[in-house]
């Protein structure tokens, strides 16, 4: 009969904890990524529905997508300048309101509110 030394037990327990921690981080990252993709898809669907209801305002929705939903790449100098200044981040809703797309922002806000319930295990961290 083989007895486990204390060193072996500690090594196996450490390995188990490391694997469990890495697994938890990967699951959490996957859930966050899925939530972000689902939110983007819901917003784009809402914009498509809004365009159907407001066919004369598709230019506003395109401007909203370009200015508020599409991340802008900054050059190195611009990035350093942005980081050195204390600028307040503008929300998607404020950006849309500044463009004059209040009814589209209202529809987007309703869409975002419908995404308030998160799936497990992400819901454990959000509550």
**What is the string of helix and strand elements?**
HHHHHH
Outline:
elongated
**Helicity, in percent?**
over 70%
Averaged pLDDT: 85
Structural class: mainly alpha
Assess the beta-strand content as a share of residues. Answer: under 5%
Low-confidence runs: none
Radius of gyration (CA) equals 23 Å
**Beginning-to-end CA distance, first to last residue:** 48 Å
Largest sheet: none
| Overall number of strands | 0
Count of helical stretches:
6
Characterise the protein shown here:
About 75% of the residues lie in helices and about 0% in strands. It is elongated, with a radius of gyration of 23 Å. It is mostly helical. It has a domain at about 40-125. The model has no long low-confidence stretch (mean pLDDT about 85). The protein has helices spanning about 5-55, 60-70, 75-85, 90-100, 100-115, 120-125.
Summarize it.
The protein is mainly alpha-helical and 127 residues long. The chain is built from 6 helices and no strands.
What's the layout of helices and strands?
Layout: H1 6-53, H2 58-69, H3 76-84, H4 92-99, H5 102-113, H6 122-126
Helix pairs in contact: 1-5, 2-4, 4-5
List keywords for this structure.
127 residues; mainly alpha
């Amino acid at each position: 009969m083989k007895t486990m030394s204390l060193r072996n037990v500690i090594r196996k327990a450490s390995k188990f904890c490391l694997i469990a921690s890495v697994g938890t981080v990967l699951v959490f990252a996957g859930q966050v990524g899925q939530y972000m993709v689902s939110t983007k898809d819901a917003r784009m669907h809402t914009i498509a529905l809004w365009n159907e209801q407001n066919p004369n305002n598709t230019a506003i929705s395109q401007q909203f997508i370009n200015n508020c939903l599409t991340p802008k790449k900054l050059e190195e100098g611009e990035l350093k300048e942005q980081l050195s200044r204390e600028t307040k981040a503008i929300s998607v809703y404020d950006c849309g309101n500044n463009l004059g797309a209040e009814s589209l922002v209202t529809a987007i806000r309703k869409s975002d509110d419908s995404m308030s319930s998160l799936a497990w295990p992400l819901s454990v961290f959000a509550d």
